[in-house]
Design goal:
three-stranded antiparallel sheet, disordered N terminus, Aspartate Aminotransferase, domain 2, 2 domains, Aspartate Aminotransferase, domain 1, 14 helices, 41% helix, alpha/beta, seven-stranded mixed sheet, binds pyridoxal-5'-phosphate, 360 residues, L-allo-threonine aldolase activity
């Protein structure tokens, strides 16, 4: 079963071109703007496997500086960046301890185990994405031939749009370090957490040995993630990236989109957060719809239509040009730079129209 909604209907008035859809399925759907494309066209390029692409180097340097770590490495995807990080932190027969709801455990096909021979120990994860220190401590193995060797704690921020408490993350990292484990942060939406808390990126990164950041979500580039860490770690990660087939050539075109995003698309994430809140607050007034108030923190909101409304609501919205989440029973909707303030009003009006019609 495809998880994606049907392709957009063809509108004869647009001569067969698909009509523009407002897409709330994810923030990965963002398209590069004209200005971002221009930056990509103008980027100086070189062969990055020869370490000769100045734009890639500039992007890596910029993120290393922002997070106050020694070095960084550009990857084609967040999945590959996370996998390379896990392969660096753990050898075959060693173990990563990770939240059971985290992407590195749940949505990356267990690549670390499949390709790296790394054992994964999932921990209970609260609705808001938190794991407990007691659970971490209980999961760290003693030196016993019956166990894998605990080597890494993998964290995530944001989790399902929820900002993780920085003091708690720091305490988890300290507990891991005290037992000789390293700490990796999957920061696919790291800057959503930065902007929401109005804290420095370096502060959020400080307890972590490595951080992976997606440029292709709310930051709006067509592709790319960056792994940040120590000089030694990143040198090793470059070898892992090569093994995984992620060494790319004139990839400065993509890195230029990343530099553009860091210049123009970080602060504006606050707009996405505001749009998310506006829609969720309006929908909370509809008696037929539950809105999750707890998981309403950054650029995601979760709604629970009555079971009988699930498919018809999705279909109505799609016919009116809005793609919403498909998940059941809680649908996820994600705001991003592809949705304007005016479209936020349209989205609210359409939800209201669906429910008004359903009452008559
Ligand atoms: C999207 C995402 C990733 C992986 O990114 P891809 O570029 O899609 O491989 C990792 N972690 C989290 C939390 C994500 O949302």
């Amino acid at each position: 079963m495809s998880q994606y909604a049907a392709s957009p209907k063809v509108d004869p008035n647009t001569q067969g071109l698909p009509k523009r859809m407002i897409d709330l399925r994810s923030d990965t759907v963002t398209q590069p703007t004209a200005a971002m494309k221009q930056a990509m066209i103008e980027a100086p390029l070189g062969d990055d496997v020869y370490e000769e692409d100045p734009t890639v180097k500039a992007l890596e340097q910029r993120l290393a500086n922002l997070l106050q770590k020694e070095a960084a490495l550009f990857f084609p995807s967040g999945t590959q960046s996370n996998l390379a990080a896990l392969l660096c932190h753990c050898q075959r027969g060693e173990e990563v301890i990770v939240g059971e709801k985290y992407h590195t455990f749940l949505h990356e096909a267990r690549g670390a185990s499949v390709l790296g021979g790394i054992a994964m120990h999932p921990l209970p994860t609260s609705k808001l994405g938190q794991i407990q220190i007691a659970d971490l401590l209980a999961a760290i193995k003693p030196d016993d031939i019956h166990d894998p060797i605990s080597k890494l704690l993998a964290l995530e921020n944001t989790v399902a749009g929820c900002v993780q408490d920085q003091a708690h993350l720091t305490a988890l990292a300290e507990a891991a370090h005290a037992h000789g484990l390293s700490v990796h942060l999957d920061g696919a939406r790291f800057f959503n957490a930065v902007v929401k808390q109005q804290r420095a990126a370096a502060e959020l990164a400080a307890p972590m040995d490595s951080v992976s950041i997606c440029l292709s979500k709310g930051l709006g580039t067509p592709a790319g993630s960056v792994l940040v860490g120590s000089e030694k770690f990143i040198r090793y990660a470059k070898r892992q990236r090569k093994i995984l087939g992620g060494g790319m050539r004139q990839t400065g075109m993509l890195a230029a989109a990343g530099l553009y995003a860091l210049d123009h698309n970080i602060e504006r994430l606050a707009e996405d957060h505001e749009h998310t809140r506006q829609i969720a607050e309006a929908l909370a007034e509809l008696p037929e719809l539950e809105v999750d108030q707890e998981r309403l923190q950054t650029n995601m909101f979760f709604i629970k239509p009555r079971p009988a409304d699930h498919a018809p609501l999705q279909q109505f919205m799609a016919e009116q040009g809005v793609r919403i989440g498909w998940q059941q029973p809680w649908m996820r909707c994600v705001l991003h730079l592809g949705v304007s303030a005016q479209e936020v009003e349209q989205i609210i009006a359409l939800f209201k129209r669906y429910y008004q019609a359903s009452r008559t």
